[in-house]
Amino acid sequence: MPAIQSYFIEPIWEQFCALLPEREVNHPLVCHCSRVPDQVVFEKLVQVLVFGCAYWRIADESCSDATLRRRRDEWIALGVMDALRELVLEAYDRIIGLKLADVAVDGCITKAPCGGEKAGRSPVDRGKQGIKRSTAVDARGIPIGTLTAPANRHDSPLLTETLDAMTETLGELPEQVSVHLDRGYDSKATRERLEERGLLAEIAQKGKPAPLMTTKRWVVERTSSWQAKLAHKKLSWYRKAQAGD
What we know:
This protein is an alpha/beta fold. Helices cover 44% and strands 15% of the residues. The chain has helices spanning 6-19, 38-51, 55-58, 65-77, 80-95, 159-170, 188-196, 218-243; strands at residues 102-111, 120-121, 129-137, 143-150, 178-181, 200-203.
């Protein structure tokens, strides 16, 4: 069964294909080790994103997991992935509409067993390697800005960079945008940062109850939970592969 129906994926592929530069073949034996078609790789990368599983689980006789990783890195280096993200977000805004009157921001810690330049000691996992993902979402929970940092970074100082990532993607924001935050952001510095940007602060206060479902923060919690679930599934597949299962 396809990850996404063809009437969704085909228009996206057509836009993505238009972004790819023309590839020159300089090998003396043109027919030697024919290249896997870009569309095959693209559709399999979409499956990886939708299912959250490891590359080797998606790989088959038409395309290996090594090819998926190489082509992914190639497209990222060319800036094609960033361009596609902007196109898809713009299309969503045009067809469905981003709800930007209310924006929610929060951080989420995930494991990073393989380390990496963004990994750091996790305060909630006995000092093991982890990363913190600070995400901004619209009122429906659509991610509009994300920042990755070491797991031991506090949420509040990451707010400015997360908002920068959001405005870099969206451009100028509408007037009277309310930013909804949990009590971890309850400080004078946070309110000053938001005021400098012309944003309204809706922050849960320390020492006072703030039920999640009665506020407009729950959408970012839902999005972070979904992202963490995908990351956990990829980590589970990785561990099974290491164990030879």
